[in-house]
Amino acid sequence: MEVPFYEYIVVGCGGIGSAVVYWLSRRAGKSAHLLFAYKHKTYVLFIYPPHVRRTQVYQTDASHFPCVSQISMWAEAEKESGIQLVYKSGSLDFTHKGTAGEDLFRRYCKAMDDGDIPYDLMDAKELQERFPQFSGPGVSGLVALLQKDGGLVDAASSNAVHVQLARGRGATVMDNTAVLKIDTMDDGTAMVHTSRGRFRCRRVVVTAGAWSNNVLGSLGVHIPLVVSQEQVTYYNTTNMKDFTKDKFPAWIYHGDPHDIYGMAIHGNTCSKIGIDCGGFPVTPDTRTFIPDPRREEQCKKFIWMHYCIGPMQYLGPINYTKTCLYTMTYDRSFVIDSLKSKGKPQVVFCIGAGHAYKFAALFGRILSELAIDGRTDLPIEPFTMDRPAITDPSFRPIYQNKLSTIPQAASKARL
Ligand SMILES: Cc1cc2nc3c(=O)[nH]c(=O)nc-3n(C[C@H](O)[C@H](O)[C@H](O)COP(=O)(O)OP(=O)(O)OC[C@H]3O[C@@H](n4cnc5c(N)ncnc54)[C@H](O)[C@@H]3O)c2cc1C
């Protein structure tokens, strides 16, 4: 039987895969072909800082700045669909004076000054004047940095909008289809073996998140990654009106040993709180969907004992806790590349490194250009595979908040 041929196949339909298929469909129409294995992701909201934050990479490495300046790529799908995807609730970083978090702030401020990115620096009093929701005893000694243009991307809507627009242009989307392996062929095409048969294509884009090495492994490539099981908790509060997006920013506290983040109420969700890199290493097969009560307690204490308490009650009973996976490179920076240097230019791939949602629309465009044109004008040099975190076996992980254990398999795995 003849194997169906498509110009492009995209493996994975998370935030990045759905954006790739959208951008492919703008230029390639029906020849974009999307495959995805499991269910659609259901993350609801993501912090959307139009700058830099949350990881050591951001503070020390200006390489993310060009991405930041292109983050408005979301506007393309918003314009086309007429559906709002980005909400500028503002984003607030805060920390305690005299801590490592304050050093981080200095570096942020310098980076933003250099990049001409506006922000407001506030002490505790100014913070409380601006956001009276911060009313707990722990507020004293805080320093805070507000970016008015920061906010949220509605991830569920964004994925759906990208996919729908692509489908509207004729892209084929195959649900519940697992990619089992990829072979590169002598004629320069790729053969994609799936749970629903084989497909041949000119270019294949792999955006398989935590499963990336399962897919890339069949091509003899292994990216050193740590996958961790993270969680976010949603709390009910009767005081919803003080925590809506027009009154309350997306926020992140830079602490030791972890950063803690949260955001305003959006849509039918409650207020959301999570610990950045607070989880433990897993694989997609060993992960559980069971919330860790210690982390729920830690978040609750953080909010209740220190910040948003009193008349402006932020916390109510837990509505639910959702687990999910971070897929992190050892430098916690992205990988956006093709396997051209391995003699397999048919294959393009991306690893989001646990903080890529805000850039999904941009990365979708970049990956579509790599697939169609074999190149992009957008600045991806810092994100190629050719860097120590991927190639140097002695590279030590530099997450801002280290996970307690790096699994043996991951530490040995090198390209
Ligand atoms: C708790 C949490 C909070 C986060 N907060 C933020 C934030 O505030 N800001 C931010 O920018 N980012 C944040 N992120 C990170 C962000 O979610 C990811 O970087 C981004 O979603 C990665 O997108 P992706 O498309 O690469 O992977 P995913 O969204 O994981 O998608 C991969 C897809 O590939 C599919 N797949 C896997 N294997 C196969 C196969 N063999 N065949 C076919 N399909 C396959 C999967 O089913 C999945 O649908 C957060 C992540 C978590 C877990």
A few lines on this structure:
This protein is an alpha+beta fold. Helices cover 27% and strands 28% of the residues. It folds into two domains: 5-42 and 156-222 and 331-392, FAD/NAD(P)-binding domain (3-Layer(bba) Sandwich); 56-152 and 227-329, D-Amino Acid Oxidase, subunit A, domain 2 (D-Amino Acid Oxidase, Chain A, domain 2, 2-Layer Sandwich).
Describe this structure in words.
- The protein is α+β, with helices and mostly antiparallel strands and 415 residues long.
- The chain has two domains: 5-42 and 156-222 and 331-392, FAD/NAD(P)-binding domain (3-Layer(bba) Sandwich); 56-152 and 227-329, D-Amino Acid Oxidase, subunit A, domain 2 (D-Amino Acid Oxidase, Chain A, domain 2).
- Helices cover 27% and strands 28% of the residues.
- It has twelve helices and 20 strands.
- The strands form three sheets. Strands 5, 6, 7, 13, 14, 15, 16, 17 and 18 form a nine-stranded mixed sheet that branches. Strands 1, 2, 9, 10, 11, 12, 19 and 20 form an eight-stranded mixed sheet that branches. A three-stranded antiparallel sheet has the order 3-8-4.
- A hairpin with a 5-residue loop joins strand 10 and strand 11.
- The two termini are 36 Å apart.
- 49% of the residues are buried.
- The model is unreliable at 36-61 and 401-415 (pLDDT under 50).
- The chain binds flavin-adenine dinucleotide.
- It comes from Capitella teleta.
- InterPro entries: FAD-dep_OxRdtase, FAD/NAD-bd_sf, MTOX.
- One of its GO terms (molecular function) is flavin adenine dinucleotide binding.
